[in-house]
Amino acid sequence: MTAPNRYDVTEWPGGDPHDDIGAVINSIVADIKHRQRSKDEDDGGRPGAVIIIPPGDYRLRTQAVIDVSYLRIEGAGHGFTSSSIRYNVPQSQWSELHELWPGGSRILVDLPPADHGDEASAAAFLVARQGDPRISSVEFSGFCIDGLHFEPDGVSENPENSYRNGRTGIYVEDPNDSFRISQMGMVYLEHAVTIRKADALSIHDNFIAECGSCIELLDWGQASKVTDNLIGAGPYGHSIYAENHGGLLIATNNVFPRGESSIRLSGVTRSLVSANRLHSFYPGVVILTDDSAENLVEGNHLLRDQEPWAPFLEVSNGRGDSYGIIHVEGSHNTIASNHVSICVDSTTLATADEGIVGVRLASGRGNYVSTTHVVARDVARNSGESAFEAQVSALLSSADLGALDVVTVQVDAASTANTVMDSGTEEEVAIDRTANAFRPTPRLGAL
Amino acid sequence: MTAPNRYDVTEWPGGDPHDDIGAVINSIVADIKHRQRSKDEDDGGRPGAVIIIPPGDYRLRTQAVIDVSYLRIEGAGHGFTSSSIRYNVPQSQWSELHELWPGGSRILVDLPPADHGDEASAAAFLVARQGDPRISSVEFSGFCIDGLHFEPDGVSENPENSYRNGRTGIYVEDPNDSFRISQMGMVYLEHAVTIRKADALSIHDNFIAECGSCIELLDWGQASKVTDNLIGAGPYGHSIYAENHGGLLIATNNVFPRGESSIRLSGVTRSLVSANRLHSFYPGVVILTDDSAENLVEGNHLLRDQEPWAPFLEVSNGRGDSYGIIHVEGSHNTIASNHVSICVDSTTLATADEGIVGVRLASGRGNYVSTTHVVARDVARNSGESAFEAQVSALLSSADLGALDVVTVQVDAASTANTVMDSGTEEEVAIDRTANAFRPTPRLGAL
Amino acid sequence: MTAPNRYDVTEWPGGDPHDDIGAVINSIVADIKHRQRSKDEDDGGRPGAVIIIPPGDYRLRTQAVIDVSYLRIEGAGHGFTSSSIRYNVPQSQWSELHELWPGGSRILVDLPPADHGDEASAAAFLVARQGDPRISSVEFSGFCIDGLHFEPDGVSENPENSYRNGRTGIYVEDPNDSFRISQMGMVYLEHAVTIRKADALSIHDNFIAECGSCIELLDWGQASKVTDNLIGAGPYGHSIYAENHGGLLIATNNVFPRGESSIRLSGVTRSLVSANRLHSFYPGVVILTDDSAENLVEGNHLLRDQEPWAPFLEVSNGRGDSYGIIHVEGSHNTIASNHVSICVDSTTLATADEGIVGVRLASGRGNYVSTTHVVARDVARNSGESAFEAQVSALLSSADLGALDVVTVQVDAASTANTVMDSGTEEEVAIDRTANAFRPTPRLGAL
């Protein structure tokens, strides 16, 4: 072979990739380490390798463990299709379906489920290497990781709606640098991508949906980006979650339901959330907590909608609408130029008496809220029809029962020295003007 | 073959791809369907395939019809070059040109032209499949679709400037999910990409220019994204057009002339237009019509310039400058933090007496316009020189005859209950203050 | 070979790519020109080619010269790792390191250094072709260009910290159209990407760091984009620099230190800088000079931090903090909805007596500054600890000595007729209110 660092799983003699692609990848990684023994660049160095996964179904019965830098795993198709829709079609109709499963370069995760807190053990791909330097430039590109089924949780009538199966797609355990995840499809995993201790990570241009949680950046990290993805978690998990990150860029993502939140930042500082389209069925679409500070949340479109689909009509994230569509527990953040749309049936709101809140500053100080446009409409409860056309129709023009009174910005007593401007009239903003700075949006017809 | 789902058009025995790549692709699709007969994943399933197009010229005499999910068609070069410039160079000089045609993995569309309204029949690629599930995860990546020539239209002196030839690059007819179009080059097609009924579509990082219309999202759709593209339509068509879409994200595109508009949304709701650079030679750069509602148009740079190139000097989109650079017929939209530059020769404006308008709210109610900076300059009429250097020079520093009086925001009587702030002084904004809320930009030197 | 326009450097008979990939690429380009002699498309045309570089170490002893359109050079791994960290680890500890060098499809630039002003001569890749049409659609994708070592500069204690070696990664000399640079890794080059006279260029989704300068767009250009990159220059160079560009889009980049600036625009007009996260250790993070006009700088997060790492503690870009985090010498620009964080030890500031400035309008007229939130904190001087964890820790929560008085916006006498709104209170903004328009941010507790 003239290019020894290029592997094709279908050509590698170390196993049958259709039966267990995990074992095949581990065999390839062992071969890379065996061949790239010298660190000396004049001796070939340690350039890593590319592992190619042609389109096809590949079962993974053994966890793939990656502990070499510069490994790129590359498929030729993200292969997403909606498993959620299929699993809510009666099996009697399955024979009429064109196809049943996701496709492309598809990995079927067939590992025993992990216990909660031990997610690493049931990850399809585990990246783990301690010592120096941090493992660098591992890349996942262009294939599909399919968790196959969700499991009964004692609550969901249909176990396939539980968003629980103890399976993770990609789990990075140790400090890492310059990783790339792009063009992937991920579906029906309890956790799609979990990355600890990331530096200069890029999660770009993926399709990660119908997973319990989609992107979780844990422990701490810096200078990373989550951009231009299509994302939608299950009702109990996170679409995008980060903790203790500095300098994180979350931009130009289209995040659709469900997700207990669209973007949740805990202890995150000096980061940017910009130009995202965020759609949720619950309050708390963007959440900053645990002293998240000096972040800019700017130019996002947020829609808090109501659930249109029968199997999830009774599901909630447990928060009332007074929680805020944007909820801030932190200081010196900037919340500017966002549009917030709220479409709910006021007769069914759990917390109608507390009011519906657009932006809520719950604690902290020195936040700056400007140019927020909150539009709230009281709409008829959705019928629960499942058809795609009905969903689009609902999104486009929910039967409008009229405008809804909302608190566009609420500043709690525990949050002080904030500046709120151009985000609601005097009647629409709940703020202690002795403890904060406030300029109302001009009133209609005020000359 | 160890990877049966990987096809190379130059290796497939079913025809000569250089003579008719459409027939070859159809033969491959037939083979995929023949081989992937079982829907059972333990029997190989229906993972789809990748079709590889190496760099080269491939004539397409037969329409390629795609009715299988998870098909990725992948080239190794988007191959754009300007056909418009070449066709306006005298043929006597062609012998001095380094090359004449686009390149890369290039498909030469050689189909009979379609009648208007029957675009599907003359599409190079037609994606069509009814029934459930919706066809999913078809991907087009990294190749060039070249419509070759435009046809006489009875108006254009040079038929190659007509932007008419009845040819479409990619036409998706039926409801679809999770499609991807990326890294493509498309040139000299009357319609480049036409997609009906899209869900979670990604059109990302393409070069689509010198086409009658570039991106048209028709019928309805949701949760899609058009991001990070270089785009420029002909003077009679759309650069980016969408109708009845909800949750559409249009971000970080660089849209250059001509295009009768840069972005036009009809009946689009709860969508985001952010961080785009938009350059046009006519008024109406961003247009929201047909009750487009609750959208956020934020952080865009808009330039309404004047045509610098001789062949198109007399072309117009038929609108006067009072139409507005941003034109809104709809409700509850947010227009914020946009910069609008206007460079025109005031002596040649058709509608000079009506005035030049930055943002026009023509009908609807409840829109919110904030932080709009309109800069207008009266410039000498361009000489019509065609050289690239002259174009850049004009773009950089049109001979400045001085500032131009404009109406920065005009609110028509048919649009009410809007809020307009920080988008012009009292003299610059035309608004009925009894029917709307208004706060002018502070005046210079007002203490 | 059925696909003659697809080359693999490891299979091409014209040389040993591991010894000199430059000679091999030149041999391939010669073959392309030899084979594609006819411009006639019915004779095969000039579609260009793809050159594939599998993962591996490839020394480049001969400059690769590209003078054909539609050439794509494609690797299978960007291969970045931090060379800066390694070179500041004592060599005695190198034996404990997992790997020493960058990887992926890695090109080791082994050319004699260029003199200043003659960078083209020591570029690994030189793109040069005069005449018409402009050279088009050259693409660089997915490989690593490694400049290997920096050289003694008489100042840096460790020569590997000098950021000087006279080496350039990619140098494009002549007018060009529709180029693409994506998924590249570039490290330890004095100049990573230098492009003159660009039209519709895309620099997207790259990792360009630890280079003297990263992206330099010279001479003039139009309608290009620099999007979604991870970028960080050395302390003496530019992260993103452009001169005389019109219609440039710089968006969704994550730019980290050092860089004498993050984004510097000279004579740039009608361009957009949006949704970037920008981190610097010096004042002057975004700089507009030389009459840059009508640009929109919007929705960016800027952090002027202090150097945390021992080898660079004494390095400065020579500017005092009164220079401004955003510095404008130009007219009719819009600076809106940006967040500026400043973290410095006030006892060590060179120009403490002049004050710290957020946005400085130094010259020009008619600029519009709105909705700027400046947060400044006085922090203890960093210990110089190098560990990644310490850096993240500093980024997350620098020991806070309290708020710092800053001038949020300073308008110099040489800049007039500007409008400054909502960017600081009367006490925080330094402006001549007779020569400019001003509206202060409301004061805390002002009823």
Structure, described:
The structure is a homotrimer of 447-residue chains. Chain A has 447 residues and is mainly beta. The first copy, chain A, has a domain at 54-89 and 99-256: Single-stranded right-handed beta-helix, Pectin lyase-like (Pectate Lyase C-like, 3 Solenoid), CATH 2.160.20.10. Helices cover 8% and strands 40% of the residues of chain A. The first copy, chain A, contains three helices and 42 strands. In chain A, the strands form three sheets. Chain A has a 16-stranded parallel β-sheet that branches. A 14-stranded parallel β-sheet of chain A has the order 1-2-5-9-13-16-19-23-26-29-32-35-40-42, with helices on one face. In chain A, strand 1 (6-8), helix 1 (17-35) and strand 2 form a beta-alpha-beta unit. The radius of gyration of chain A is 24 Å and the shape is globular. In chain A, 66% of the residues are buried. The model of chain A has no long low-confidence stretch (mean pLDDT 93). Chains A, B, C: Pfam families: NosD. Chains A, B, C: Its EC number is 4.2.2.17. Chains A, B, C: This is Inulin fructotransferase [DFA-I-forming]. Chains A, B, C: One of its GO terms (molecular function) is inulin fructotransferase (DFA-I-forming) activity. Chains A, B, C: Keywords: Lyase, Transferase.
